[in-house]
Amino acid sequence: MARIVVVTSGKGGVGKTTTSAAFGAGLARAGYRTVVVDFDVGLRNLDLIMGCERRVVYDFVNVINGEANLNQALIRDKRVEGLEILPASQTRDKDALTFEGVEAVLSALAETHDYVVCDSPAGIERGAHLAMYFADDALVVTNPEVSSVRDSDRVLGLLSSKTRRAEQGDEPVKEHLVVTRYAASRVGKGEMLSMEDICEILSIDLLGVVPESTAVLNASNAGVPVIMEEKTDAGQAYDDLVARYLGEEREHRFLTEKKGLFGRLFKG
Amino acid sequence: MAVSQTSGAAFELKGRMATLTVLRLLSADPGLVFIQLDARLAQAPGFFDGMPLVLAPGQDVSLDAAMLETLVAGLRDRGLLPVAVADVSEDVASVAGLGVLRNLGGSRSEASGQAARGRSEKPAAEPRAHENGAARLVTQPVRSGQQVYARGGDLVVSAPVSAGAELMADGHIHVYGTLRGRALAGVQGDVNARIFCQSLEAELVAVAGHYRLSEQIDAGLRGAPAMIRLRGDELEIDAL
User: Start and end of every CobQ/CobB/MinD/ParA nucleotide binding domain (chain A) (predicted)?
Assistant: First the structure.
């Protein structure tokens, strides 16, 4: 039986899909059979970030409606063994997701995989609710600014009340904080919230900090999960994040400002 | 469960305060009531149409089922809408298909025209001390958008309360964590209710309806342990 992991945030544009792609690829690289499911029906993006947009024939909604079976819709990643994608439909909207349909698809995927990663749409409405409802774990993606933190706080409230685990009184959804687009230099100037502030406000465990990086945009443009760009800071941050999720102890590397040449010379 | 997921909640139950017009019967003779009522209605044609009414017998007047039925029918004929009775037994009320309001007592003396009683009269919404129910304990963080109400007692939160969250209690509120959201103690009117918190960063604090916004809280008190109480009509915030 797979663990179902939702990647969610409330706010849009904070890096949910980038994180879903990197996290899924990282789990698969570690040897786990992993599927990443795009819940953003109508605003399909995951296939672009994962570089498989030209191979989409059937999608999540087709499977829910019985127009295709799961194997027809799943796209196997060509670079990482054991990684698959279930793309969203671009021509439909979130109402096309039914509770029973999502439940059936997720439980079928859970039979044949070790991890099911659900890439949630922004917002707290139907699509986001269904993406989190069946989750065992949650990665809450937050940027170091007040509106993103408040939206994440709201989502954490929903995770503890509007999920299957909460409604059935099981052990609560395990919540992990992922801070993306973190720029240590701007935190130093007081333009961004610091890690301490974010952790204090949200009071959940920090899984990883991904620095603001040009590598993320470059990887998205190239259709490569950024975790596979191993020389980049963002790639390494996601690699640490996956290792920590799998139980390894790793230090947080990107909390302090990287010093430039002059900074190093003069020990700033 | 599945049904609630596909269609969403179909209803909510909410307690609301509302003003209702009470028709106090000072005579047991429906005929007399109707004659005087018609005169009153004629002064303001249309004004009373569809008005929900509570029927209450005045002192020394007792209503029986037959009288109540006659009254209800007559009132409906005149466009009024009797919805409930007060101080009448359920058996009698059910004959006329009306509900029974039990807690109308406070306004009774007011409406019976005994002005001589003056200040000793109780106001309609009587502030009352909470009835020391069991305290409600919350150990998880209270997140933005969540609302916790401790009915009839105190609220104890042993975790942070986020901005955009709302705590309410009939009694005191204790927050053993940072209070960033709203906290309303004594919401039923208990002026002795207090708010205690380990770190005051609240958006709003209120005791028995007297509130203060974050920008009205002295900056020197923010971020520190504090106690909030009502002194007369003024909220007082003290560092602990």
Answer: 5-226
